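Supplementary notes for students who missed Thursday's class. We covered one full example, reproduced here. Read the sequence, then the structure, then the short commentary at the end.
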Amino acid sequence: MRHPTPAPFASPFWLDHVQHPRLTLVVDLDGTLIPFADTPDHAALDAAGIALIDALVAAGVDVAIVTGRSCASAEPVRAAASSAWWFAEHGSSRYEHGTWIGPDDRAREVDELDQLASSLRALPELADARLERKACGLAVHWRSVPSELRASVIAAADQACTDWLDAQPAYELVEGVELLEVRHRSATAAHAIAWLRARAPDAHVLAIGNDTTGEDMFLALRDDEIGIAVRNFRMRRSRARAWLSSPDAVREFLAWILDARTRDDTRPPPVEQTPATPARARLVVVSNRAPSQVADGRMRQVSGLVSALLPALQTHEGIWLGWSGREREGTNPVLIETELQPARASFDLTPQQRSQFYDGFCNRALWPLLHSFPSRVRYSDAEWQTYVEVNELYARAALDLVEADGTIWAHDYHLLLMGRALRALGYRGPQGLFLHVPFPAPDVLETLPWADELLLAMTQYDLLGFHTEQWADNFRNGLRALQARTPRSLAVPSIGVLPIGVDPLSFRAVDDTLDREILGLRAALGTRRMILGVDRLDYSKGIPHRLRAFDRLLEQYPEWRGQVSFVQVSVPSRIEVPEYAELRHEVETLVGRINGRYGEADWVPVRYLYRSYDHRVLAQLYRTADVALVTPLRDGMNLVAKEFVAAQDVESPGVLVLSRFAGAAAELTEAVLTNPYHPDGLAADIDRALRMPIEERLSRHGSLARTLLDSTPQRWAGMFMSRLREHRRSLA
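Structure (token representation):
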């Protein structure tokens, strides 16, 4: 993804804008008017900057400064440059009539934010980071952290904030320049521009900003207004029309505006034009969510997909497209960031689209349907229509990014209709879809009122990938049933059974310095055996069934009482959906019941951890466990099973107890395969795993480990791309 070299605009274009009789200049503070600094105390407007602002105001310009700082942090700078309008916390607070007017009550979940702040301060990795508490947000700054420690700071902050956000849907995670910020969705610079417009409806706005604050401002501009991005360290595609390289360049441009208004200066403005159209990519990967940046241009790992797809994206100069995770009203253009690895394109959804597409049809209709839980589905005509519309939105965005004969690779159940939308828009290049979840049998699928339309749309992909032969057969049988109901001839795409794997080396090459929480867990366990479960808190994972089986183990095999502890890690998930809140209550009730029934003063039967862990700590947890319970009621694959095998000590491996209904069971046949619906049977299988002799453990683990070597994520991605190319050649 390469862009042409920027070039200056012609002078008349700019003069028409900056000489407008009612010009409103909206400017970011840190990284725009002044350079970034380690702390706010070291980042103040100098006398020259204050004089420039005062002169612009005297020349008839309404200057508004919008900063992400808290009101208290912004106040010293505001007092020095009081001729401007001031907005803090990304525009949610403003200074008026001698006081700061803060956000409304709905943006002040004080207790929850305080709890997050306490959690972050307790993390030893964040000892050198700076936490900035705001009225409706919390930022973690690592500008002053030594470079060798930044990766661990960023990973710990990102993990803790992501966990917290799962239970706080009104907030979002914003990636800034050397910071991560959790903020209320209402706290955006667009609110500052809306207030300024209400005050002066005839004003013409020119906005200058960097980072996410700037993008919020640019999105709020009219088509005839100008946004200018300050790039500082990042050369990313922006919604802005032009760019400046640094705060010094901003000062130079503001001085040019002053001259243009007071001296009739007609020289070209010192700005660079943002290219109107980016170069197109040979490969566009599309998923519901775009992977998030965490540091140094790297992406957060998303179920192994980033590491799996990175080689293909690099080879084909590709780009990854997806929803940003943010909500904004109105038309939301695509933001392209080519400096990331891989390059990323993202767009916002409207609140209505998020509610009806993601929370609604995807999670309350397709997810339970595809996992064969028809009693849990909820069908809504409005949600289906939004699903259709959002798939078309993804298709239009992908079409704008891909070369005419380039490749589009879509992922998962959110995008089942995108292939059809692409063909309707005229795209004739190769396109494939990999489904990471199960596919149901025809009698279950046909409970969906739009089943025929969905199947027909999926046939517009050239290649459909599934984890197992069972899921692929279910799709084939669905097509056969559809063919029996319709006189038309159906196009049959190529179907590939391509199970994704994990990188075994990434779980073996883990720092041997044990995490403090793992050390504490080992100390608490003492000589007791450890059973481990790690899952998203989802009804498909069978966590209540697993707990009931552990209850039966302690009842039927009393010799294990006091000798074994079950550690269940439940990663928060979709907490805003009522069914998931009910599931959490059920799980916590079962944990309390078991601990109350069997617990002793020095023994807790079940240790329940409602949080997630990073890769390093997970690997240590896996290695500590004697038995892993991976017992979903239905799962497309389940990579936890493979991660557990990869992390084991080859000289004394633990035992994997695996549900027959997980896709992984088709490959990991040497695991102890079990039926999670049968509590007595699962209890017996746990007992068997705990008693398994070392010779059998070594034999089973050796076979399982060899299986992992044959199905790495990189090989999986390469095989999918190869199959897609072969299919296209066969059609030529």
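Commentary. The first strand starts at residue 23 and ends at 28. The chain is about 40% helix and 20% strand. If anything here is unclear, bring it to office hours.
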